[in-house]
Specification:
Blueprint (H helix, E strand, L loop, with lengths): L2 H4 E11 L3 E9 L10 E7 L2 E9 L4 E8 L1 H5 L5 E4 L1 E5 L5 H13 L5 E9 L8 E8 L8 E2 L8 E7 H9 L6 H20 L8
Helix pairs in contact: 4-5
């Protein structure tokens, strides 16, 4: 299938514009059996594209996570203070690498010594266009602590440093229960040996 030739947009309109945007699509697409589907009407949540940064100290085998209030978790009836990775929206014209470094500084006070691009993924393709670009950043966790975030953006972010094994245990017992952090930690557990080989010695202080 080719999105350029196998999807026909019949109409597209913005039905809500606030802090986020919702667009309504009327479309049809080619089917696996051949021919075309009937008309499909779907609302798509537009919130931009994001970077996610897992902060890892290979010398101490620790990760630095953040904790903050999330209204979506509250609305779902979940505990609304989530343990997460650093993350931020990529604004138009910005390079994702620059966003990853900026958000790390803003949310933890740490300036990464190294940055590895892990991969990209869609967050919830059934109803949103949002994608995440996942990074792993090398940091010195002994220098990371406290409360951070931009007051003008209403951020109240607490830093939490834990051993990698404890972070995985938190995934298993659901203390870490958001997809961005779960994916990042599971990736780190699988790739930790090769990452440590890539980042030997003590990083320069920044």
């Amino acid at each position: 299938m080719d999105a350029k030739t196998d999807v026909e947009i019949l109409s597209k309109e913005t039905v809500f514009q606030g802090y986020f945007r919702v667009d309504r699509y009327r479309l049809r697409h080619r089917t696996f059996a051949g021919g075309w589907s009937g008309e499909v009407v779907r609302e798509v949540f537009e919130r931009g594209h994001a970077v996610v940064v897992l902060l890892y100290d290979p010398d101490r085998d620790e990760v630095a996570m953040i904790e903050q209030f999330r209204p979506g978790a509250y609305a779902a009836g979940w505990h609304p203070w989530l343990i997460e990775c650093v993350a931020g929206i990529i604004e138009e014209g910005e390079h994702p690498d620059d966003v990853a470094r900026r958000e790390t500084v803003e949310e933890t006070g740490a300036d990464p010594a190294d940055l590895v691009h892990v991969g990209n993924y869609l967050v919830t393709a059934g109803g949103s266009s949002e994608s995440c670009r996942l990074y792993c950043a090398r940091v010195d966790t002994s220098r990371i602590s406290g409360i951070h975030g931009l007051a003008e953006e209403g951020e109240d972010i607490r830093v939490l440093v834990v051993p990698t094994a404890e972070a995985l245990a938190m995934v298993r017992d659901n203390r870490i229960n958001n997809a961005m952090a779960v994916l990042a930690i599971q990736w780190l557990v699988m790739e930790k040996a090769s990452l440590k080989a890539q980042w030997p010695g003590t990083p320069p202080q920044r």
